[in-house]
Amino acid sequence: MVVQEDILPYFYNYFHRHAEAQITAILKGKGVLIAGNYTQPFEAGEVYVLGANQPHIFKADPEYFENVKANNVHAIHIYINQDLLSKTILTLHEFDQIKKFLPGVAYGLQLPAAFFSETAQRIKKIKGLTGLERFLEFVRLLEFFAEDVTEWKSLSTGFSRAPNGDSESMRINEIYQYTIEHHAEDISLRKVAEVVHITPHAFCKYFKKHTRKTYMSFLNEIRINEACKKIINGHFDSISSIAYSTGFNNSITFNRAFKRIMRMSPTDYMNRYKRK
Q1: Which candidate in 23, 51, 61, 165 could, as Cys together with 106 as Cys, close a disulfide (CB 3.0–4.6 Å)?
Q2: Nearest Cα to Cα of residue 106 among 149, 142, 155, 63
Q3: Domain residues of the chain, as ranges?
Q4: What is the pLDDT of residue 229?
């Protein structure tokens, strides 16, 4: 386990991955988080758990590059060797809850806002300790995550409530994986319903029940997330090319969906988050 505190002009500005899982508390600063295939704004007062080898970047807003100060952003990161944990303390029955929790971080989680204050205090306490005391406090943090925190937000689907039961998790995951792989295609409700072997009508009711959103809303979120990644990384020729490459039939529909989800136009987003 390694603890790193960053008080810097801006967050590490490169899309990267590492072998350790990561817990990050954002204490100051804001921007856009890309974690694997998921994109969303982030700000102070949030905690994220990222999986081992999960590509990610906390991309600071442009204002931090325009007005460079030594303490523009502040974050504390805890890096975890999950393999080592699994081969040591997690072999003990007393840590079964932690053992069940850790695989769920593979695609990233966001801590619910209600738990931020206590979690930030715990992370700051860990930073101030050394040796065995630091490790024991870290284990207590994992116990807190596994036993007390509810309503984690998935950074793979954006859902705020995990599905109940392993079979439901597998079914939702099949829908998500199919959507990620085929988001640029013309996906009909019939096609996606066939993935989980139910009728389109039953699929609509099922998806709304477990995600509290319609499938088409979810599909548009995935497409707009992909559009944001293209804009941030500079992988596009024009706004219309982004629209068509992410599955929209025309620029008008794309612009409407983008404004609804990101609360700004694609052009405004491009101006704010273009690569420096």
Answers
A1: 51
A2: 155
A3: 2-154, 166-273
A4: 81
pTM given for the model:
0.69
Over residues 152-160, the mean pLDDT reads 76
User: What span, in angstroms and rounded, lies between the C-alpha atoms of 153 and 112?
Assistant: 7
Residue 164: what pLDDT? 43
In 3D, which of 98, 103, 91 has the Cα closest to residue 166? 103
Percent residues over pLDDT 90 in the chain: 50
How many beta carbons lie within 10 A of that of residue 229, not counting itself?
A: 19
For 101-149, the pLDDT digits (tens) are: 888 888 899 999 999 999 999 999 999 999 999 999 999 999 999 999 9
DSSP for 9-78 reads SS---S-B--SSEEEEEEEE-EEEEEETTEEEEEESSEEEEE-TT--EEEEE-THHHHS--TTSEEEEEE
For 155, phi then psi, to 5°, come to: -90, 15
Which CATH superfamily groups domain 2-154? Regulatory protein AraC (2.60.120.280)
Burial class (CB in 10 A: 0-12, 13-18, 19+), 239: middle
Instruction: Give the integer Cα–Cα distance in Å for 132 and 134.
Output: 5
**CATH superfamily of this structure's domain 166-273:** Homeodomain-like (1.10.10.60)
| Separation between Cα atoms, residue 223 and residue 39, nearest integer Å | 10
Taken in order 158, 164, 166, 168, the sign of the CA dihedral is negative
Please give the Cα distance from 64 to 62 (Å, whole number). Answer: 5
